Amino acid sequence: MTALPLSREAFEARLRQIGAERYHDRHPFHHRLHGGDCTPDEVRAWVVNRYYYQSRIPMKDAAFMSRVEDPALRRAWRSRIEDHDGADGREGGIARWLKLAEAVGLDPAYVASARGVMPATRFAVDAYVRFVREKTLLEAVASSLTELFAPRIHAERIEGLLRHYAFADDISMSYFRKRLDEAPKDVAFGLAWVLDHADTAEKQDAAAAALEFKTDVLWAQLDALWHGYVAPARIPPGAWRPGEGLRAQAA
Amino acid sequence: MTALPLSREAFEARLRQIGAERYHDRHPFHHRLHGGDCTPDEVRAWVVNRYYYQSRIPMKDAAFMSRVEDPALRRAWRSRIEDHDGADGREGGIARWLKLAEAVGLDPAYVASARGVMPATRFAVDAYVRFVREKTLLEAVASSLTELFAPRIHAERIEGLLRHYAFADDISMSYFRKRLDEAPKDVAFGLAWVLDHADTAEKQDAAAAALEFKTDVLWAQLDALWHGYVAPARIPPGAWRPGEGLRAQAA
């Protein structure tokens, strides 16, 4: 006997439950960051490593679009790349992330080189890009739905960083403020698309597993960061070390 | 001006230096394991996660062979798959690893299901399989050269585990004993192949980077293990938890 699919509402609730249980706002590193307990070097390590994730998002979206035959779906997706890379003189999310890098005392060119990124960060992020390149379109779109849970973390982050850290100001927080505008539009489209297309129990299971996979990608990045940089720091060979990659004024 | 390649001897020394600096025998988890300081659950977590690496090695070798046009090279490589998967009634390395799983109190079927593997382990190991599938043959062979450094760690492991842990006996240690015979043959071939084919400075750099990449793959697995299971254990969502997957007698 084949299982019946959940109703649209029940399936959306199932997806939201995955976020409630596994999204990285539950990770202790985020509590530490937002609560003002991170040292400057822990913040820098986060900025260096999270840059790698940001830098791969447009490549992930291009990999997705390279597999989409429907011009309307490609058109709806295209703004994600523009939001990260910039367009028509508007700066994108990657440039805004580099302003945060500068604000925390890092040389933006060093951060953009991705030289100090931990291997564990690369493995997790690259797994995400490849997932989107290789899995079904449904699984690829479903894996983007962690954006459902992002506005909460961005709002907490802006508030927490502004309250606790001298580097936080309108310029360095511009990445997060902008994502508060962009993410809801993207995720409303993605969620509707997944609810429309996951029309069997099997497809619903695959979409839910894809969203779980993506929560693993995010969680693993913070695990690596904690292990590498929170005392007793155990920085893996080749990764950024405190004192490296500082901008001239901060060195 | 193009850089001149190193001599064969100097290039081999460069590769060996990478092992001296970055091979995972330098990782604190190995000292803990070999020194008898791991709890039974830490040993189990290692067995559960390391199984995933073992299980992907023959897939990695098949991916390599799928890209090799030269029958002689495929023939030389094929024994690696047999060594892991078994042949003609001889059991392979994977079956021997599951004996170790049983000896430490785990249900071999649970371990073989790979259900409890940490996402970070999957990301690292899958990155290795994909590296071998996508990079040049030279880089693929070079990435296998961590075997140059394996006999030392296997010998230390047999001695350390036998001395410190009740589960260690001839049967449970058979994986490591057998690798002491197999690895030197494989790596002698691989090393000669790399030294023969890395005939420009650029290729030598690529081969050295491939070997560094592989040391990252191994190191990241132990970082994840330490973070997840050594106190204060921070087990990521979905990964094996103490008490799960035990064999009937041990439960």
Describe the structure.
Two copies of one chain form a homodimer. With 251 residues, chain A is mainly α. The first copy, chain A, has a single domain, classed as Heme Oxygenase, Chain A (Up-down Bundle), CATH 1.20.910. Chain A has eleven helices and no strands. Chain A has helices spanning 8-22, 28-34, 40-65, 71-85, 93-103, 108-113, 119-134, 137-143, 150-164, 174-197, 201-229. In chain A, α7 (119-134) packs antiparallel against α11. The longest helix of chain A is centred in the last third of the chain and has 29 residues, at 201-229. Chain A is globular. In chain A, 40% of the residues are buried. The model of chain A has no long low-confidence stretch (mean pLDDT 95). Chain A binds chain B through residues 21-22, 28, 118-120, 122-124, 126-127, 130, 212-213, 215-217, 219-220, 223-224, 226-228, 234, 236-238, and chain B through 21-22, 28, 118-120, 122-124, 126-127, 130, 212-213, 215-217, 219-220, 223-224, 226-228, 234, 236-238.
